[in-house]
Amino acid sequence: MDEIHTMLKERAEQAQKILVGIGEEFQAGDSINADGRFSLERAYQSLSRLLCGRDYFVVTLQEKSELHSYDFEEERMTAPCEDEEEQWKNYQDWLSGTLNKELLILELGVGFTLPGIIRWPFEKVAFYNNKAYLVRVHEKFPQLTSELQQKGIAVRQNSVEFCANL
Fold it and tell me: What rounded mean pLDDT belongs to the chain?
């Protein structure tokens, strides 16, 4: 797993923009494994460090208030389930500026609860942007479509654990 973490950090350094999707694996009940080796807090802290100083945007299925305490910038995130049209518009504007840019797409724990918000749109962005690379991390559903096999990597691991060990 260390080589995937190293690759992710290198891609983050090279990327002009980073798009992050945070899904249902980041729910508080899923934050600690049986051995207690990782936590939601450590995962958010690691993700915050990865994004620090970068041009990023976070789309989350969680409450935005969770991210505020980890230095994620308010104007760089949206939680569509909280019904905030202005932030969704900001996201769409930011996203339109990713075409023909080195874009790292990091999809963390997004399954099929609400695939139309993150999973399927992120696949579409990766497909149409020739300079995009998708890293999909999910314990049960990490698969990539055949069209994205050369433009991404599927990591079968709990996304909270994956981020906590970055």
Answer: 90
Report how far apart, in Å, the C-alpha atoms of 139 and of each of 30, 75, 143 are.
11, 30, 10
DSSP annotation of 61: S
- Running DSSP on this structure, what letter comes out for residue 111? -
Tens digits of residue pLDDT in 44-83: 999 999 999 999 999 999 888 777 778 888 899 999 888 6
Distance CA 31, CA 152 (A): 26
Q: In the sheet that 132-137 helps form, which strands lie side by side, from edge to edge?
A: 77-78, 56-60, 17-22, 103-108, 132-137, 152-155
List, as one string, the DSSP characters of the chain.
Answer: -HHHHHHHHHHHHH-SEEEEEE-GGGSGGGSS-TT----HHHHHHHHHHHHTTS-EEEEESS-HHHHHTTT--GGGEE-GGG--HHHHHHHHHHHHTTTTS-EEEEEES--SSSTTTTHHHHHHHHHH-TTEEEEEE-SS-----GGGGGGEEEE-S-HHHHHHT-
